Amino acid sequence: MIDALFYDGHSARAHKVRLQVEHRQLVASGAITRRWPLAAVRWPETTRHGQRVIHLADGCSLEVADAAAFDRWRQAQGVAHDSWVVRAQQSWRGVLLACVLLVAALWVGYRWGVPAAARGIVALVPLEVDRSIGASALQGISQQWLKPSALPPARQQALRERFLAAARARPGAPEVRVLFHAADQRLGPNAFALPGGTIVFTDELVQLLADSDDTLLGVFGHELGHVQHRHGMRALVQVALIGAATSVVIGDFSSLLAGVPALLGQLDYSRQAEREADHAALALLRTAGVSPQVMLPLFERLAAHRPEQRELPLALSSHPADEERKAFFRNAAR
Amino acid sequence: MQLAPSVRELRIRFVGSGSEYFRIWIVNLLLMLVTLGIYYPRARLRRLRYFYGSTEVDGRPLAFHGDVKRVVRGYWLAVALAVVYSVASQASPLAAGVAAVALGGLWPMLWRSSLRFRLANTGWSGLRGAFTGSTAGAYAAFWPLLVPAAVTTAVALFAGPDDKLINPWPVLAVMAASLLPVPLGVWQMKRYQHSHIAFGSEHTRFKVGVGAVYGVLLRGALLAAVCIAAGLGLAFLLFAGGLRAGGARLGTVTAFALPLLVTALVLLLLQAVVRPYITARLQNLFWNGTRSDHLRPYSRLKARSLVALSLRNWLLVLLTLGLYLPFAAVATARLRLESVRLLSKRDPDELIAGLRQQESAVGDAAADAFGLDMGL
Questions:
Q1: To the nearest whole angstrom, how far is the Cα of B273 from the nearest Cα of chain A?
Q2: What DSSP state is assigned to residue A47?
Q3: By the CB < 8 Å criterion, does B315 face chain A?
Q4: Which of A142, B107, B181, B280 could bond B144 through an S-S bridge, CB–CB 3.0 to 4.6 Å?
Q5: How far is Cα B270 from Cα A332, in angstroms, rounded to an integer?
Q6: Residues 231 to 250 of A: which have CB under 8 A from any B CB?
Q7: Model confidence over A105-136: pLDDT tens digits?
Q8: What is the pLDDT of residues B249-306, one digit of tens each?
Q9: What is the DSSP string of A244-308?
């Protein structure tokens, strides 16, 4: 028997009753007497604080102020077993296990889940979408950072033909378009691939590697890898997925904070994508019969070109460290 | 405050604890992650039940009666709406415009439906609340909030993609002017919400002038301006200091990292200072202007306390990488709820339950998925 307050659902007046369970029925007796089959009773979930409210299918309710006594009582009665979720929430051991599993789930999802999901989703997106996104990105970039190329047209054509011939020799290589542009100072010697297959070389990069067309071919192979793996589109999907996951976790606190993991995650995925593109460059060079060794001057000259030490800590950088990438091509040449 | 002898004061207490909510939160979080979000509506229901059950009015707890099936159904509808909307807004500008207009057109209806669901499922002493506002009333209240979006869209259509040809100042002036109806919209929506709450035989009225809302939001805007100025001033000092201390090299490093740092700082100040300031002022304004025949809430939440709590919460959330979030939620709920008292002219036992009604959970969940949290 346990003391409770009975509410009939029509008036806020409380009636003192005592509760007991008999013949699969919950019985309240006192100033009034009522019975409910156990199937009509919604028992409260166990919590450490607060009162216990029992809801009944007919709109009546019962309040028990002494929560600890209620928990003992219903255990003795053998009714209202908590779900395993509630049991986990009530024990610090369960909570600790949940913490460990949470970290593991976050790690697995981040390492394999999100990239795999992004690959799957991007595979469903028609290439047309890549092209239209790439076209509008190119428009934006050209307005801000690019000027018409000053390279002689014959030089452009020669490079383009060499690049495309090497690409044709690779099975499954995507259709690409190679453009040359003079760049703004902020962009400097650079090359980038846009979704849909536009690859842009800056004049400054072509001049920096003027004596080594093989190195330029390697750079092309790297950018071709970005196009082939649709890294640009995957990045969009990954940002959206991580953003959605974080907003579930802390969205009701701040949408501002929710953006930070998406950004850091994307930088990490971007380093993975760069590695994948370096693998593609290696494959292209091998097919073209060029030693991977030709890539080393690229990193040295780019480093020399940097005005001063501007390398960011790795977590904030979109590319792997130069040393790692040099070692990759050096080892491949052996 | 001096009470007339016949006035009874009903105290509001929040008895939830941070460590308990942490345990509920972390297990829910795990379940949501491993089920890829499918568990979300159940987790949300458990959270609501915990916060309602931990709120005691005159020693009796509130109850949230929302039923799992309905909450789940509402959640999937909200997900479907969000997916259609985001796909449409990626597809083409026209589809994005159509989707935005459709959503804007549906929103007041979903909002009203959500208010009805929330109130109809809020119980106390065996009674249930009700929301009596009409759909037409929701549309009439909502329109001023559409003005900024409509003006921005019109400017974008008029200007086209080539933004260099247009003198920016008149455009900025027009966009700033389009914000003027926003406090009117906030006031109309609160008036709609607070004049249609029914509990038993009590029906609420709302007596706050629109001028007071403009006053609070204007002071909030001034505070925001101060925060932005402080951020920029600090940036200038750091930059100058970096130049002097480290010469040109350090100067470039700070110049590179500084815009990021300052943006983060200003956003943090806006979230942790300006937002709680406005929240506290509006809570007092709106609740003190609401009353029914025999009941009257009295809120005296100090803006300073809520700002201090919010700064503390932000600091601890950042330091613990988010693990403090459930503690922050409980502390905020406690401060906001316990600064409200209910003054009653008659014995609350005499309040008789009004009509009970069922309302679809669709609006409740849909409103939540678009980031509009309602109530508690």
A1: 13
A2: -
A3: no
A4: B181
A5: 52
A6: 245, 248-250
A7: 888 988 888 889 888 988 888 888 888 888 88
A8: 555 555 566 777 788 888 888 888 999 999 999 999 999 999 988 889 999 999 999 9
A9: HHHHHHHTTT-HHHHHHHHHHHHHHHHHHHHHHHHHHHHHHHHHTT--GGGGHHHHHHHHHHSSS
Nearest to B71 by CA among B357, B358, B374, B360: B360
ipTM of the complex as predicted? 0.71
Scored b (16 or more CB within 10 A) or e, B198-216 reads bbbebebebebeeebbbeb
Distances (CA, A) of A213 to A140, A292, B197, B283: 29, 13, 76, 69
CA distances in angstroms from B53 to A51, A63, A190, A268, B197, listed in the order given: 7, 11, 60, 43, 20
In contact, A119 and B47? CB cutoff 8 Å: no
What's the pTM?
0.77
User: Please, what is the Cα angle at A229 between A244 and A126, to 5 degrees?
Assistant: 70
Residues facing B205 on adjacent strands: B291
Q: Which DSSP symbol is given to A110?
A: I
Which two tokens mark A185? 């100072």
d(CA A57, CA A191): 68
Q: How far apart are CA A316 and CA B301, in angstroms?
A: 41
Q: What is the β-pairing status of strands A25-30 and A33-37?
A: antiparallel
Q: Going by DSSP bridges, is the β-strand pair A15-22/A61-64 parallel, antiparallel, or unpaired?
A: unpaired
Cβ distance B267 to A256 less than 8 Å, yes or no, reads: yes
Helices (H) and strands (E) in chain A, counts: 12, 11
Contacts of A319 (CB under 8 A, 6+ apart): A270, A271, A274, A325
- d(C-alpha B315, C-alpha A7), whole Å: 44
Contact B156, B100 (CB under 8 A): no
From the number of C-beta atoms within 10 Å of its C-beta (0-12, 13-18, 19+), residue A268 rates as: middle
Beta bridge partner(s), residue A200? A179, A192
A49, B127: Cβ pair inside 8 Å?
no
Task: Please tell me if residue A252 touches chain B, with a CB cutoff of 8 Å.
Answer: yes
